[in-house]
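<context>
A single protein, sequence plus fold
<entry> Chain with its tokenised backbone below
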Amino acid sequence: MSDSAFGIKNMTDKATYERLEKDVTAVKNDIAALTEQITDALNSFANNAGKQARRHYKEARANAESALDDMSERGSAMMDAASSLEESLEEVITQRPLATVGLALGLGFLIGVTWRR
């Protein structure tokens, strides 16, 4: 091989090497940029997921508190109704003791007859 052919081969190899080195550097930069974009996307996703989880937790807690308040009100209303019923029965028993005893005997008899069948 002559010196000129050896020089062209070395120049081609050097040019190829430099081109490959530029390509590798470009790929490394692209991978770094892609990694940064993926990291940003994952951080954004995690932040959104956290916000949604907190919002759903607050909604669930508000719904539970509302249901608990509603049950408390209903329980209070039932206790008031039971107290009122007790007072009414007490008043009826006090005003008409014989009628109350007769009614109790009649109901007991009907329940007994029905139970036998």
